Amino acid sequence: MQKKQEKTGLVWFKNNLRVQDNAILNKALNENNVVLAVYYFDPKDFMNTAFGFKKTEKFRAKFLIETVVNLRANLKFANIELFVYQQSPECHLASFVKEHHVTKLYTQLEWTHEELETHKEVLDTLEHDIQVHTDYDQFLIHPHDINLETSQIPDVFTSFRKYIEKNSSIRPQAYLTKHNTNLSIENTTKVPTLKDLGFQDFSLSNHSAFPFKGGESAAKNRLNYYCFESQKLGNYKKTRNGLIGLDYSSKLSPWLANGSISARTIYWTIKKFETEYFKNQSTYWLVFELLWRDYFKYIALKYQNKIFQRNGISNNSHFFKKNSKTISLWMQGKTKSAFVNANMQELNSTGWMSNRGRQNVASFFSKELQMDWRIGAAYFESLLIDYDVHSNYGNWMYVSGVGNDPRNRAFNVELQAERYDPKGDYRRLWQTNP
Question: Which residues pair with 131 in a beta bridge?
Answer without folding.
Answer: 104
